[in-house]
């Protein structure tokens, strides 16, 4: 019998609210107040999200973040910085002991990302999983040279024509898996690479050139323009097919939203959280 999960459909939120809502869903699920949930969302303003362990002063050019009018927020998940702009962002919240979830982190990542794979297929794009195989690729996993998420390899990343098409990060707290990630519709490389510190301009040029060879957005490779609405529809059905679930729409109550707003204010809008690493 197909299991029913909750689905919180696309809405634009501030960076603080987006991260607070993902954390709140994780907490509610750990308390058995919420079933497994998938959420789609966008960012207002466009935002640079930092991995949990990233050092802001060392890696991020804060003047350029401000100049471009971008938000800045630190995620609960690890990994490297992601510029959230013209994209569909998703999050999946499910218990570690759920029957569908393997114990190994990388295998759970593969199972959840099957929903993304089916979403790309629904858009007519042939995506597939890429797994690091050589010793060199494994070393890059352990010691990435770039602060940019889409520049770094990861287990079971989704690629099209050899280029990374979706970036995801996962964490586990209170017995719950939170995986969230970016499905890029468009990407502005110049703006993205403006946001980081480099030893010199030559290093920036080399990294940016390498990025073009490693990452791609949906509308760079599609033979037609795919809208956000189309992407939402495709990936909703993709998650249903990939995870063999039914998604039931859900709207947060006023009480739930009040909890999220308080968490956004106390943690994710707090400079101590954002800058102290």
Strand content: 15-25%
- CATH architecture, please? 2-Layer Sandwich
| Helix coverage percent | 40-55%
CATH topology: BirA Bifunctional Protein, domain 2
Major β-sheet profile: 9 strands, mixed
- Give the CA-CA distance, first to last residue: 46 Å
Q: How would you name the CATH homologous superfamily?
A: Bira Bifunctional Protein, Domain 2
Descriptive key words:
single chain; 277 residues; alpha/beta; BirA Bifunctional Protein, domain 2; 9-stranded mixed β-sheet; 24% strand
Describe the structure.
By secondary structure, the chain is of the alpha/beta class. The protein has a single domain (3-275), classed as Bira Bifunctional Protein, Domain 2 (BirA Bifunctional Protein, domain 2, 2-Layer Sandwich). The chain is 40% helix and 24% strand. The protein has eleven helices and twelve strands. It has helices at residues 15-30, 56-59, 62-67, 105-122, 135-142, 189-194, 201-214, 218-221, 228-243, 254-268, 271-275, and strands at residues 3-8, 12-13, 37-43, 47-50, 71-74, 82-84, 87-95, 128-130, 157-160, 163-173, 176-184, 245-249. A hairpin with a 2-residue loop joins strand 10 (163-173) and strand 11 (176-184). The protein is globular, with a radius of gyration of 18 Å. The termini are far apart.
Gist of the model:
By secondary structure, the chain is an alpha/beta fold. It has helices at 15-30, 56-59, 62-67, 105-122, 135-142, 189-194, 201-214, 218-221, 228-243, 254-268, 271-275, and strands at residues 3-8, 12-13, 37-43, 47-50, 71-74, 82-84, 87-95, 128-130, 157-160, 163-173, 176-184, 245-249.
């Amino acid at each position: 019998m197909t299991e029913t999960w909750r689905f919180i459909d696309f809405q634009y939120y501030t960076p603080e609210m987006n991260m607070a809502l993902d954390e709140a869903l994780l907490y509610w699920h750990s308390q058995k107040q919420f079933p497994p949930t998938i959420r789609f969302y966008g960012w207002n303003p466009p935002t640079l999200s930092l991995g949990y362990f990233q050092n802001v002063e060392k890696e991020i050019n804060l003047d350029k973040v401000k100049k471009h009018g971008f938000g800045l927020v630190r995620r609960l998940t690890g990994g490297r910085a992601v510029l959230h702009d013209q994209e569909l962002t998703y999050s999946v919240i499910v218990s570690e002991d759920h029957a569908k979830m393997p114990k190994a982190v990388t295998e759970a990542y593969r199972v959840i990302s099957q929903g993304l794979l089916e979403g790309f297929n629904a858009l007519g794009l042939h995506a597939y999983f890429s797994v690091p195989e050589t010793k060199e690729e494994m070393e890059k996993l352990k010691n990435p040279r770039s602060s940019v998420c889409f520049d770094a390899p990861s287990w079971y990343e989704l690629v099209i024509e050899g280029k990374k098409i979706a970036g995801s990060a996962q964490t586990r707290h209170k017995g719950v898996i939170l995986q969230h990630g970016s499905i890029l519709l468009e990407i502005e490389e110049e703006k993205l690479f403006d946001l980081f510190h480099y030893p010199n301009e030559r290093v920036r040029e080399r990294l940016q050139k390498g990025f073009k060879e490693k990452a791609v957005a949906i509308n760079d490779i599609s033979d037609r323009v795919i809208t956000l609405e189309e992407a939402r529809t495709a990936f909703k059905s993709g998650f249903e097919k990939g995870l063999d679930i039914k998604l039931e729409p859900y709207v947060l109550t006023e009480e739930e939203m009040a909890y999220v707003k308080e968490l956004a204010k106390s943690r994710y809008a707090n400079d101590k959280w954002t800058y102290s690493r």
